[in-house]
Amino acid sequence: MICLGIETTAHTFGASVVDDGASKGDKKIDRSKVRILSNVKDSYTTEAGGMIPKDAAEHHVAVCGRVIQEALDKAGVRMRKVDIVSFSQGPGLGHCLRIGAMAARLLAAKHNLPLVGVNHCIAHLEIGRLVCDAHDPVLLYVSGANTQVIAFDGGRYRIFGETLDIGVGNFLDCFARCLGLGFPGGPKIYELALKGKNYIKLPYVVKGMDVSFGGLLTNLKQKIESGSSHEDLAFSVQETVFAMLLEVSERALAHCNKGELLLGGGVACNKRLVEMAKRMCEARGASCFVPEPEFLLDNAAMIAWNGLLVFRAGETIRIEDSIIRPYWRTDEVNSKLSKACLAAKARPYA
Ligand code: ATP
Ligand code: FE2
Q1: How far is the CA of 197 from the centre of ligand 2 (A)?
Q2: Is the distance from the beta carbon of residue 298 to the nearest atom of ligand 1 less than 6 Å?
Q3: What is the pLDDT of residues 89-100, one digit of tens each?
Q4: Comparing 2-126+298-345 with 135-294, is the CATH topology the same?
Q5: What stretches of the chain adopt beta strand conformation (E)?
Q6: CATH number belonging to domain 2-126+298-345
Q7: Domain boundaries 135-294, CATH class
Q8: Domain residue spans in the chain?
Q9: Which of 100, 111, 201, 328 is the most buried (most CB within 10 A)?
Q10: Whose CA is nearest to atom 5 of ligand 1?
Q11: What is the number of the ligand 1 atom nearest to the C-alpha of 189?
């Protein structure tokens, strides 16, 4: 079956066509036959950094038709060959989610196709499993807005740890802005950290299984004002923050008795985080999986792929019920949707 997926949780408008290589009546999907036929995106950017949701939504309206057409053209698929339309239903910015939902509803209605709403966080995990051949991992999901440690346990996806305030990506972007670096800050902090030599002690905030970055940001602002070396601060920030994230991830691995760590989200493009994650996994005999950046950052392939899984679990939504869910938590995904993930657990998907 072929699914057209649409992603619009934040600054990226994405469209993708994925073929699961199985026919409608098939109960099984053979993972080796799944094909990502296209994965197109256009992201809203600003010179100054930061994002006004209303402007991002206007960007999405402007590029919507072109990006969807490009995804179909690249895939060599006409709309009448598409079997399912899926979209990011949440979590995310309401202004942005609404545009993707609207486009998906229109296409589903016009072509009389089933509509599937996808949880964006779970989609990050499922695409990682698909492209990395991970079986049953703990996901360290580190993006701009989200920071969560997620794993499948007791019949559904659960959050084992998360940020108590801002996402680690937003934290790095704010820190970069304080240093006068542009947006996105993550890659710039990484480059600056390579020149750092001395570790400056910073607050290490792990509370139970959760992390927090607000106090650390305040502390950094004070250190910048008092003249600490920017290079040393960047180096120390990475060492501190990534250690916090990996401490929680390691405890989730131990608690769930799982042997695979999967990274997801834009911050996982950071080579130092990957290096530290690999070292932690090596020390405990676990495998570490890191998808290509195309699948770490927000993308529509993950929405199309998860749309297929959810459809096969029998969970479609009526257009009148397809309201966006800006605060949809990973652990709120209902048991029927979780079943889709459960169904996808065996290798190949059975
Ligand atoms: P979500 O809706 O999942 O929260 P998002 O749009 O907020 O998505 P992503 O696109 O997954 O986030 O990631 C954006 C973050 O990743 C930014 O904070 C950015 O600084 C960071 N980032 C991007 N590339 C790199 C890199 N090479 N190294 C470090 N951080 C990076
Ligand atoms: Fe994301």
Answers
A1: 32
A2: yes
A3: 999 999 999 999
A4: yes
A5: 2-7, 12-19, 35-43, 84-90, 115-119, 138-142, 147-153, 156-162, 206-207, 210-211, 260-264, 287-289
A6: 3.30.420.40
A7: alpha beta
A8: 2-126+298-345, 135-294
A9: 100
A10: 144
A11: 29
